[in-house]
Amino acid sequence: SEALRHRTPQREGWAGHRCGQRRGWWKTRTAKEAAMLRRLLGRELDFLSSSEETALSCLASAHRRLITHGGGGACSSFLESLDAASQALRLETAPRSYRSAFTMHYRAFFPDKARNYCVDVLQASMEHYAVTWVNGDKFEFSAEARRRAEALQTALADVCALMARWSQAESRGRREIFRDLASEGADSSRSQCRPIRSEVRNSLVSLDFAWASFEHKYIAELIEIGEKARRLIVRAIEQERKLQLLEKICRQTECGEALEQLSEYQEQLNRLVASVSHLNSVANFHGKGRDDLNAQVLHDAVKTLRRCDVSERNGENTEVLRAARILCTGVVESFFVMRDYLREVEHSLEWVDPHLCNNAGLVSRLVDWEESWEVGTRYVQNERLLNAICDLVAEIRAAQRIAPAFTTMCEDCDVELFLILPRIIWLRFLAEPFQLLELLSNLLPHRFESKGRCLAAKQAQRWDSELESFMAKFYKVRDALIAARSNTSTTGCTTARSSTGTSGCTSSCPDERFSWELLLKRVVSGTGGAGKDDLFSCLAPNLKGSAQVAVEDLMHELEKWSIELQRHCPDDWNQCCAIIVQCLTGAPDRQNIAFHV
Hints:
Layout: H1 2-5, H2 9-40, H3 50-68, H4 71-88, H5 104-107, H6 119-127, E1 131-134, E2 137-140, H7 143-172, H8 174-184, H9 197-229, H10 231-253, H11 263-283, H12 296-313, H13 318-345, H14 360-380, H15 383-402, H16 404-412, H17 417-431, H18 437-443, H19 465-486, H20 510-525, H21 541-567, H22 570-585
Antiparallel strand pairs: 1-2
């Protein structure tokens, strides 16, 4: 009691103060220990380490760029940041063992069980395609794939909302957020403050599982669609294999040429050509994509080649047959190259793009096949037209011997060559109309009578009055040149004669041969050719001037007809030029083509 009497308020206050200090120290120590505990167990609590905050800040920044700029680059950067943030948080990865069942093509994009977020998968989930078109055929995605795409978009929207909150918190700053917390309360500012770790974790894990679910279903259905889309080329491979087997059996039994007489072989050949034609209509986006080319083109080309062999054995002019051989060889070889491709690609079907037009090797061979067979359909199957091309090519080769400068133009494919070609065609037509009648009536049908009429009756007129006037002018010029040459004191102009035996004119008359060669040299020299006046040095001096004026007047009108020939139907003219150049330079080398899918 004595001790109690000696207690004073001052002493009691001092003791309370000391006790409060002890309690505050204990609370501080407890808070520090709790903080240390959170650092140790931060994966399961709402504490974010500095590395995790850095990863989420990078993700938020990538999200802002995606919203602001868009595009594939920003989307790819966002997905990479998403993967990096998930790894920094050490989150659970959705199982991706299903990737082992992918084809080699897709395993190249998804090589392991890592997340490997792909922009194409994300884009597919956003577009919600229920239908896709491949090679002109319609394919539908299942309702389950569309449902999983919607689930992925929902999970992605949650992540984007969290990243928007994260960016908003960073922009507002810590001090302003604490002020809002004090004034408005935690519940009202919950949507404005930075997301806690558990929110981020749950959202990213949900996104990863939704992503894996959609990726599994989407790629599996793409693989199934790809297998169906490749049926066109698989069917062609099967038919080529059957045709090859028939050929092997015939070689073993030594059937020889009787192979083409077998109905079974012809039917199988027709099926293969039909499959190649169908492939061409689907995949050949560089050309016309024709599907109407049939096996008869190949049969006619083979028959023409055999006739060429017989003619050569009989000693006929090989120069005239050369063009026919080149065109028919192109038909046959382009088909063999296509068959070689089918045999090679059989071992690489997994690498064939289901969109067949994306396979460069297939497209290049189809382009060559279509061009060669289109030429065969138009020129090889029409015997009169083929004869006209052969005659024209032979005349052009004769022109190369007469005018050496023209040879250089042909070898270099000079631009001037394509100005001279229509002049030579017209000059040959004017000299021998019925040799090129079929060719000119194809290129300029409006200048000629109906092709349904018989062309054997040479006495009948087959062209319009304007062309008839042009031909009459040519005959007058030819007569003037012949008259001027006949009045010369010499027996002939040696420079104008052909030393090769092929003059370029079927007429045996030396005067007509002389006039044709002089006009040919004038056509090759052009309007500004050097030595143009020397061409007329062989003529009689008293007739030289008038003959030269007549020739220049003919050349002036010839230019008008040449332009019409080029411009009336540019596609037909370009094809004709390509054929002539090919016959002059030789067939392309198709034997050493490297294989590409």
